[in-house]
Amino acid sequence: MTTATSGNQATVRVMAILSAFLDNDSAEGSLGVTEISKKLGMTKSMVHRGLSSLVRHQYVVRDASGSRYELGPAVAQFGTVHVRPPDLHALCRPAENALHALTGETISLHVPVDDVVVCVDGIEGRGPVARWVPLGRSIPLHVSPASRAVLAHLPDDEVDLYLDRPLKVFTKNTLHTRDELWAEIRQVRADGFARSLGDHYTKSTGTAIGFPILDVNDEPHGSLTVAGPTDRFTPKVIAELMDDMLAEVAKLNRSTKLHLSGREPVTAPS
Amino acid sequence: MPRDEEASTNTSVENAFAVLNLFSGGTEALALSDIARLLGLPLSTAHRIVTTLCDAEFLSQQHAGGLYVTGLRVRELLNALYNRYPIRRRAARTLRELAGTTGQAAALYVPFGAHCLRIAGAQDRQQIHRPLLIGEALSLTSTPCGMVLLANPGSGGQEPHRELAEIRRTGYLSTTTDGLRSVVFPLLDAEDRAFAVIAVEGSTLEFREPSRSKINGWSGIVRRLQDQCREHPDWTVTPFAGIDSTHLQLRESHAQDMEGAS
User: Fold this and answer.
1) Could you give the angle at the alpha carbon of B163 between the alpha carbons of B158 and B169, nearest 5°?
2) pTM for this structure?
């Protein structure tokens, strides 16, 4: 803020109160004064004043109980969003650049096509040894972090549909039973990323982390992977970088959730 | 808070809402000088408000010295508002299937006061693309989507007008207006109230009049979703159906208005 007058501070507070309804995780979809006060570190009287303004303009309305608040209809006045085929490359490129700058390793963008993911873009890592960007390579949905980041974020019924088919085994570490894969899927969902298991190439000297690219319904449109040689992209390095990598991916998904819709479902086995 | 300071605070907040409201109803981009002129504010005051709104991501500037547009936060709020209709998430797959089957656009509309609001859509392989704008408002009384909503008030509702009763009896409405063909299907809850409609839409140049058997097939796709909704009453909630939307500055589409429709 450049000119911090009391009026501006009040405006900032009102906009912060309105924004609180965005990351509202309460089961009812509504917020009470005390919750907002705690969440934003404001006094209850500040929150009351802010809510009064928002209610007057119908950006916020009281819920059926009369004591809590929800987003209001006036929000609908703002603009519209085109439904159009998303340019995934353009949406993801800033995140690819940011992850590359952060890690120095190889970044790849994979998109799901039927029951595989295909590498469609990437940036090669720095240094004398770097993973190549496997443009055009396709991998089944249960193999590698690039795929499992996608598989884990499919709706449960589509995961089951995929697991119904015979799953190819690439190495002794390839997960191929329903129980193994569901355990891994739950882990990926909890972590927000998929990790290397040595399940694709027998003599792999690389390690990778796969992050999902999600739409408004939290369904996957692809994955971004960060991959490097095992002796450089070590578990310690990955752990040190993880919070920053997750922050970059969260920033990307904030954007993709507004732009992406209309994912093609995984096809039934032929 | 001293009275003078409180008055100044209220004025600042009201001015911020006034600036935001300039971007309602489909206004996409404004220069700082336009904002100041439209609100009768000194340029420095307008600049201070706009800077505050940009910091909070409610507005953003296209480039240094450029026009102002709504920011990421506004788009997130819109998205959150549309998501207050649970059917939005549930209908995504049905819309894709319909778009894929018909080769046209498929869109979901929900009641919003005197309007219906397009809150989701999917497009397929149309050669002639009409932009499918999410958030666009249509009149409830003069558009095919609105009429299909009105035609199905539910078992507790008032018996609809004869023309609407015919729409209810048929189970869908197929019309052409202004070069746009629409085939509209209701989504009925357990009380037979239309809580949303799904429309297949396309230019009449490439969306020829569909046969009855095709329409029956599309109706079957919609009905599968409807059957799921009847098992989950919480999916059929319409939070803003009863509001007075006439004073809101919605982005209205008149492309589908039907001549002579009541």
Assistant:
1) 75
2) 0.72
- Tell me which DSSP letter residue B121 carries: E
Whether residue A21 contacts residue B81, with contact meaning beta carbons closer than 8 Å, is answered with no
Of A7, A83, A255, the CB nearest to B132: A83
Nearest Cα residue in chain B from A260: B122
- What structural domains does chain B harbor? 3-77 (1.10.10.10), 83-236 (3.30.450.40)
Report yes or no: B240 at the A interface, CB cutoff 8 Å.
Answer: yes
User: Which residues lie closer than 8 Å to A240 by C-beta, 6 or more apart?
Assistant: none
- Would you say domain A6-77 falls under CATH 1.10.10.10? yes
Handedness of CA B109, A15, A30, A48 (dihedral sign): negative
**Domain over A88-259 is classified CATH 3.30.450.40:** yes
Q: Is the Cβ–Cβ distance between A159 and A114 less than 8 Å?
A: no
| Residue burial A152-165, b: 16+ Cβ < 10 Å; e: rest | bbbeeebbebbbee
Beta bridge partners of B69: B60
Question: Tens of pLDDT along chain B (262 residues)?
Answer: 565 556 666 788 999 999 999 988 777 789 999 999 999 999 999 999 999 999 998 998 877 778 998 887 888 888 888 888 999 988 988 998 999 899 899 999 999 999 999 998 887 766 565 667 788 888 888 899 999 999 999 887 677 788 888 899 999 999 998 788 999 999 999 999 999 999 999 888 888 899 999 999 999 999 999 999 999 999 999 999 888 888 888 877 765 555 433 3
Cβ contact B113–A73 (<8 Å): yes
Q: For B89, phi and psi rounded to 5 degrees?
A: -70, -35
Q: How far apart are CA A95 and CA A91, in angstroms?
A: 8
Residues of A in contact with B89 (CB under 8 A): 216-217
